[in-house]
């Protein structure tokens, strides 16, 4: 447990761009972790891992030690991540059957997964496969396996939806992907620790803590008043 963390209010920067959010996630991934990056925004994390991080990226379509996105001239049409984005391979990369990949996910062999979300509750419930709307197209993929199988779950998302509704909520109204599985939430306006103790604000970006708390219908605790589970 981290008993002495302090809330950091970054009032000179923010809201964060997708790449800035990805850089924060990359910063908090411990050296040598085995990590799965979900489809969409989380794939950007691969581009922000520093050389020598020792992080081994797993993609559910069957690859270990995936590198950053492929630059022009590096594209191999047979080498993509689960989101069908051309990627590179790092020394020691390995390939395997889709079923073996899911066995890694379900077997507890991944230290961290980074996922997008429609909603996350203060208790760490995750909703990211269906909005519940009648005309919405559900996308289950491997999120349920990752949410339960990974040792830690990080979520990367905007804090508010396009209609202005908050995505960090007391209780998820969208169908759940997994209950109580999320540990950290990285957004454009703030970073949170979530779980049985509720939502703790670790950092804010371009918004004071008091204003953030007023905009969310979720009880918040500043980091300096809470005990925060470590991700190390």
Automatic annotation (TrEMBL):
Keyword presence, Transferase: yes
Keyword terms, alphabetized: Transferase
Membrane-crossing segments per the record: none
Record InterPro entries: 3-oxoacid_CoA-transf_B, CoA_trans_fam_I, NagB/RpiA_transferase-like
Signal peptide start and end residues: none
Superkingdom to which the source organism belongs: Bacteria
NCBIfam families attached to this UniProt entry: pcaJ_scoB_fam (TIGR02428)
PANTHER family assigned to the protein according to its UniProt record, in alphabetical order: KETOACID-COENZYME A TRANSFERASE (PTHR13707), SUCCINYL-COA:3-KETOACID COENZYME A TRANSFERASE SUBUNIT B-RELATED (PTHR13707:SF57)
Family designation: Belongs to the 3-oxoacid CoA-transferase subunit B family.
Name of this protein: 3-oxoacid CoA-transferase subunit B
Natural source organism: Streptomyces vulcanius
Lineage per the UniProt record: Bacteria, Bacillati, Actinomycetota, Actinomycetes, Kitasatosporales
């Amino acid at each position: 447990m981290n008993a002495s963390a302090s809330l950091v209010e970054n009032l000179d920067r923010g809201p964060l761009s997708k790449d800035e959010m990805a850089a924060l996630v990359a910063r908090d991934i411990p050296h040598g972790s085995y990590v799965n990056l979900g489809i969409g925004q989380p794939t950007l994390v691969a581009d922000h891992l520093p050389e020598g991080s020792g992080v081994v990226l797993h993609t559910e379509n069957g690859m270990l030690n995936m590198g950053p996105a492929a630059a022009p001239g590096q594209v191999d049409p047979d080498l993509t991540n689960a989101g069908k984005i051309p990627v590179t391979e790092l020394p020691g990369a390995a390939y395997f059957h889709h079923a073996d990949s899911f066995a890694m996910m379900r077997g507890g062999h991944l230290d961290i997964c980074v996922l997008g979300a429609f909603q996350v509750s203060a208790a760490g419930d995750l909703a990211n496969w269906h909005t519940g709307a009648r005309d919405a197209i559900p996308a289950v993929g491997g999120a349920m396996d990752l949410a339960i199988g990974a040792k830690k779950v990080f979520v990367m998302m905007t804090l508010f939806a396009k209609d202005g509704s908050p995505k960090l909520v007391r209780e998820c109204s969208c169908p759940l992907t997994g209950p109580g599985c999320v540990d950290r939430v990285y957004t454009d306006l703030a970073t949170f620790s979530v779980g049985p103790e509720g939502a703790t604000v670790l950092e804010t970006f371009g918004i004071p803590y008091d204003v953030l708390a007023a905009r969310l219908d979720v009880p918040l605790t500043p980091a300096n008043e809470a005990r925060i589970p470590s991700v190390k």
